[in-house]
Sequence to fold (506 residues):
Amino acid sequence: MNGPGVIFWGLFVVCGLIVLGYGFWMVRTERREEK
Amino acid sequence: MSTQMLIFVGYFMIVFAIGWYSLRATRNETDYWIAGGQLGWFTGGATMAATHTSAGTFVGTIGVMYTAGWSFGWVLLSIPLAYWFMVAVLAPRFTRQKELTIPAFIETRYYGKGIRGLAAAIILIATVVYIQAQIVAGGLIANTVFGIPTTWGMIGFTVILLAYTVVGGMVAVVYTDAFQLVVMGLGALFAVPLTLRHVDGLGGLLTLVESAHPLVFTWETMPATLLLTMGLSFFLGGVATPEKLIRLYAMKDMRTIRRGVLFAIVMILGINLLVFVLALSSIVLFPSLATGDLAMPMIATAVLPATLGAIMLAAITAAMMSTVDSLLMVAGSALSVDIYQNLIDPDITPGRRMWIDRAGIVVVGTVPVLLLLSGVGEGDLVQFIVLLFTALMASAFVLPVVGGVVWRRATREGAASAMIGGTSATFLWEIFGTPTIEPVLCGFIVSAALYVGVSLLTPPPPSSALAPYFD
Fold:
């Protein structure tokens, strides 16, 4: 993949990582609350 | 009747039907202002995402990316981070005691009716002028689709908005928002593959866009300070603008809020990323537009087939309406609940309250149109205030709201000076400051300094003000 491709898809990947991070945080928080 | 008109008439009929259904679901003030505080994650998240996504996303964002390139896209990341911060830090304490309005929270936490009136006045002034700008855009779309004069378009747009908002309150706003989010998602989803066909697919787009605009994938098109402060503006605006905060009260509990906000984040990111692809395509398809704001209307009319073009225009209208109806609720409640019922007529009977609630929304919806018809707020002034809106709300409310639930020592005097100082500094920076730094930075720093400094210099808050959030 060339430079523009990396910059273009990079934004999609970072957005995906933030969503995943939020999802993990949410599950962990709720598990803690259940305990 | 043309296909375009049929799609719009069908769209408005569905919105009205939802408004009518909502009237029956609205029994008291809690239903009217916060949908009974019982929303589930889907409706709560959908209304959050729809309120967030305005005409700015479909027209303004494309316009900025058309001229400034992909670097602007990275500003988007501040939005999910803001929502995450809101849910993790603010919401758990903020929602312990539900209120009907954000100024009502300010009164409870900062123990005073006066400061509630101040918060309501800031919301009212900033929101009414913001609504005015959206009404102008609504008039222009009505002119494009139905061929009617822009003035009549503005009046029609306002009447439609008021009809369902006044009748059904927050319940109507929430359900119409969910429907409008679907329209927005469909508009963006259909438009992207059809537009990509005109630029040899995604691979072709990246090659073509670089030859049309060689700086598009570099950091050289926008000053770094502007990008960072724009990100800060989006972040602070995402954390504590009243139309978003009130949705935390409307959702059932913390579990629902966490899920609802995740849904909102996914929808906001999805729609924005699709819109970004359309922005890149417009650089290739229409390389010499006079202004980037014309890029989306050009895609809707010159690239998409008539039916899909109409769905795209309906999506822009949906984005606009779902934001304005939420702002009408916020401004209407500031006028009728926080100013009239709180300061002018505290002994009002419960029977009259609902009428005053509705009258407040009619007033805040009508005044902007009357001002526009009399020539006040046309042209540059409106655009100027739109850009300022998020910065003003962020400078006025982020610290009093977030600080109010995380810092016990925050006082009424500290919050009042932060609100006045923050909004004044933002306004002054907009007029006299450098354009490469967004005014929110100056407003936020002044607001923070006053909030902390004045709070420490004044007597600590009474325990009754802290009890709902800390004990």
